[in-house]
Design goal:
123 residues, Alpha-Beta Plaits, four-stranded antiparallel sheet
Length: 123
């Protein structure tokens, strides 16, 4: 028995010719921009901010409501992370600024489920 390591019959980790953690491993490369789908052009003139949404409003319901005013690129209802319930406001992205302005003119102060929507252009 080795006197330097009384609890072992031989030195611990004997026979390993490399360190436990290798420094030659590099982290994976980030995805290239060619592999990611292109994002639609985003402009504050094309985005509407919607207040006073009903409690049961979903992204799909919001998209359907605003599709009457033009081409909706994205509709998002803000959700509380803890309770997973809608927070009462959202965003709608349109293909053009004229469609967003038409949505403000048509849907601002519109009654919906006992509330009056407030639709403004995002600043």
């Amino acid at each position: 028995m080795n006197s330097n390591y009384p609890l072992y019959s031989k030195a611990p980790f004997s026979g390993h010719d490399r360190p436990l953690y290798s420094t030659s491993i590099s982290p994976p490369a980030p995805p290239t921009t060619a592999s990611l789908p292109p994002k639609p052009p985003r402009s504050n003139n094309n985005t509407c901010f919607v207040f006073y949404l009903p409690v049961g409003m979903t992204n799909d319901n919001l998209r359907a409501l605003f599709m009457q005013c033009g081409t909706v690129l994205n509709a998002y209802v803000a959700v509380d992370k803890k309770t997973n319930r809608p927070r009462g406001f959202g965003f709608v992205d349109f293909a053009s600024a004229s469609e967003a302005q038409a949505a403000v003119a048509k849907l601002d102060k519109m009654p919906l489920d006992g509330k009056y929507l407030s639709v403004t252009l995002k600043l």
